Amino acid sequence: QVQLVESGGGLVQPGGSLRLSCVVSGFTLDSHAVAWFRQAPGKEREGVACIYSSDGSIYYRDSVKGRFTASRDFAKSTVYLQLNRVKPEDTAVYYCAADVIVPPERYWGSVGQYKYWGQGTQVTVSP
């Protein structure tokens, strides 16, 4: 049974840092693409970063490039999202998602490409 469990969210000041974790079970990180999404109130869910299972390629949405870093730890079956220099517009519920089918590069941030989802963790950026 596939499960994804996020943690690490919380309240952080603008310019601060936070690390999110996604512990996966029911599959190995070298068999599934794993992505981070976020959803702010009243907005659509959007892709933040994705790690491809095949070659470990990592993709980011433009607004987080240079500030967020995705990584994975095979031994811990965990995918991380390091958030640095956060901004108020980064406030959202952050989800991790996975699928055995690696999406075409231009679709890595599409919600429909992922079958499995976690429950989400809230990140609030505020003074």
List the helices and strands and how they pair.
Elements (H helix, E strand, L loop, with lengths): L2 E5 L2 E3 L5 E8 L7 E7 L6 E6 L6 E3 L7 E6 L4 E6 L8 E8 L16 E2 L3 E5 L2
Parallel strand pairs: 2-11
Antiparallel strand pairs: 1-3, 3-8, 4-5, 4-9, 5-6, 7-8, 9-10, 9-11
Describe this structure as you would to a colleague.
With 127 residues, the protein is mostly beta strands. The chain is built from no helices and eleven strands. The protein has strands at residues 3-7, 10-12, 18-25, 33-39, 46-51, 58-60, 68-73, 78-83, 92-99, 116-117, 121-125. The strands form two sheets. Strands 2, 4, 5, 6, 9, 10 and 11 form a seven-stranded mixed beta sheet that branches.
Task: Please give a handful of descriptors for the protein shown.
127 residues, mainly beta, seven-stranded mixed beta sheet, 11 strands, 46% strand, globular
Mean pLDDT: 96
Q: Assign a percent range to the helix content.
A: under 10%
Question: What is the global morphology?
Answer: globular
Helical element count?
Answer: 0
Largest sheet: 7 strands, mixed
Name the beta content range. over 45%
End-to-end Cα distance: 40 Å
Number of E-type strands = 11
Which structural class is indicated by helix and strand composition?
mainly beta
In terms of per-residue confidence, which ranges show pLDDT below 50 for 5 or more consecutive residues? none
- SSE string, helices as H and strands as E: EEEEEEEEEEE
User: Cα-atom Rg, whole angstroms?
Assistant: 13 Å
